[in-house]
Amino acid sequence: MTAPQGGWKLKRDSLSKLLIYFKDGNVRTLWSLDWKHKYSKFLDRHLGLARLRKKVTEYGTKADAAIIYDKQTGNEIEKYFEGTPVKKDVNS
User: CA 71, 77, 82 angle in degrees (round to 5)?
Assistant: First the structure.
């Protein structure tokens, strides 16, 4: 996939999204930036995930839970509680 005319757009072209549930009751959705600049030739999932993980670290204990999802499938990629990664239960 190469850059569309007009460049990449967050909601349309991001490969992942981060839902953050704050302790004060607010919820925030962040979209991954999977490109280095607006007209990059290719998307880089690892770059986008690294940037989302950085946001989880920044919010840290202000957030009750933070969940990163694959936007195309809707599957959960990673989950955090108060900034700490939560291991997935293999039996469920």
Answer: 115
CA separation for the pair 21, 62 (Å, rounded): 9
Is it the case that residue 65 has pLDDT exceeding 80?
yes
Return the residue matching tokens 């030739």: 41
Sheet holding 16-22, edge to edge: 27-31, 16-22, 63-70, 76-81, 84-85
Is a pLDDT exceeding 70 seen at residue 1?
A: no
- SS3 assignment, position 58: helix
Token pair 């962040």: residue = 30
